[in-house]
UniProtKB/TrEMBL annotation:
Start and end residues of each stretch annotated as Disordered: 1-44
Pfam hit, one: RP-C_C
Domain named Plasmid replication protein C N-terminal: residues: 25-196
Keyword field: Plasmid
Compositional bias (Basic and acidic residues): 22-35
Signal peptide feature range: none
NCBIfam families linked to this entry: PRK13824.1, RepABC_RepC
Keyword Protease: no
UniProt name for this protein: Replication initiation protein RepC
Positions of the Plasmid replication protein C C-terminal domain: 303-400
């Protein structure tokens, strides 16, 4: 048991009023703990749990990861798993051994981080008369005096550090949730805008794109929470405007989600420019749906008209397209060039019919890079066709409007 320990630094090191006050406060707490007057505060903690907590709460104490590495090296010199702050916990490693346990850190760097730990109140210096770190033991091997670094302040602050770590975790969870919210709003807005541009919807989509870029500019992993919250609110407002504009551009048939109803009623005063399904074909489709099968969509638009809307598919034939057979053969070749798998192509033809599937391929060729994943796009339409919720006619109309 050490009766007298050093309280001032060796050599040119200065003793500040704050350090002196901390030592007096610690000595008072230690006396209370030894007298059993500490209450719920035992002054004890598992050293590795405490180091983990301090790592999580390091920002609250203004210390960095390398400073914590030096403290961890000091803690590793203690012989027990638990730190008991009711008495001095003095470790006295040599400079060489301390450098080894800090993974080869330079002595000058170690001294700088040790000073940071003293300043943060995590350790005290207990310097000998000549500044050396060592201990004296009696004839029975019991330590009488020790000079080095006292870890008792760390143990006495265990409760405070654990609470700070919990607060840091809570803040981190809140920031992650906020960052995730911003990302989801950004993704949804961008996809709605991209969909509207592909479909040629009415609306100031370029202005929305510019506002989205402004709202997400400069955001990164280290963005402050208050800035994230402001950007989140901006994105919520922008998302509402984008969604309302998109929904306002939908027709009543599109709002109902019934594409077959679109096919029954899409008409134009100029019969040459309309896409229609005859009553016989509509009844056939209804019957097929009632039997649980996707109907074969018969094209009620002339091949010449279709080629004027989708001319690029002719590039996939040798002698041009003169019949529906030529059109189907060209679509089969084009789908492979688009990277659409044979399985996806087979399912598309089974769900929507050969002619309608071929028209989808022709439309994809016209859209070009606007559709990033033709295979995924076709599978999505195939799934809709299986539910009788897909028609090629709105696609052709949208493409024709965009060309006009």
């Amino acid at each position: 048991m050490m009766e007298h320990i050093a309280t001032t630094p060796f050599g040119g090191g200065r003793m500040s009023a704050r350090q002196f006050q901390r030592q007096r406060e610690m000595a008072g707490r230690q006396e209370k703990l030894r007298a059993g007057e500490g209450g719920n505060d035992t002054g004890r903690a598992d050293k590795w749990q405490l180091m983990r907590a301090l790592t999580e709460a390091r920002a609250a104490y203004g210390i960095g990861d390398r400073t914590i590495s030096v403290l961890e090296a000091l803690v590793s010199f203690t012989t027990t798993r638990e730190l008991d702050g009711s008495a001095p916990i003095i470790v006295f490693p040599s400079n060489r051994e301390l450098s080894v346990r800090t993974r080869g850190m330079a002595p000058a760097t170690i001294r700088r981080h040790l000073a940071a730990l003293v300043e943060a109140g995590m350790i005290f210096r207990r310097d000998s008369a000549n500044g050396k770190r060592f201990c004296r033991r009696d004839d029975n091997g019991v330590m009488e005096d020790a000079f080095g670094f006292d870890l008792a302040p760390l143990a006495l602050r265990a409760t405070e550090i654990l609470e700070a770590a919990e607060a840091a975790r809570a803040e981190d969870r809140a920031i992650r949730a906020l960052r995730g919210e911003v990302t989801l709003h950004q993704r949804d807005i961008a996809k709605i805008i991209a969909c509207a541009l592909e479909e040629g919807r009415a609306g100031d989509w370029l202005d929305f794109t510019a506002r989205l870029a402004t709202a997400t500019a400069g955001l990164g992993r280290r963005t402050a929470p208050d800035l994230l919250a402001r950007r989140r609110d901006e994105l919520i407002t922008l998302r509402a405007e984008v969604e309302n504009t998109y929904l306002s551009s939908l027709s009543e048939q599109e709002m109902s989600g019934n594409d077959l109803q679109d096919e029954h009623h899409i008409q134009n005063s100029n019969t040459d420019s309309s896409f229609e399904i005859s009553g016989c074909e509509a009844k056939t489709g209804e019957a097929a749906i009632s039997k649980g099968k996707a109907p074969e969509q018969k094209m009620a638009v002339s091949l010449d008209r279709l080629m004027r809307i989708c001319p690029q598919i002719a590039d996939y034939t040798k002698d041009g397209i003169r019949s529906w057979g030529d059109f189907l053969a060209a679509a089969d070749l084009a789908r492979s060039m688009l990277g659409i798998s044979p399985d996806a192509w087979r399912k598309a033809k089974a769900a929507m019919g050969e002619q309608a599937a071929a028209v989808v391929i022709a439309v994809l060729l016209e859209r070009g890079e606007a559709v990033r994943s033709p295979g995924g796009y076709l599978r999505n339409l195939t799934e809709k066709a299986g539910r009788a919720a897909f028609s090629v006619y709105p696609m052709l109309q949208a493409l024709e409007r965009s060309q006009a």
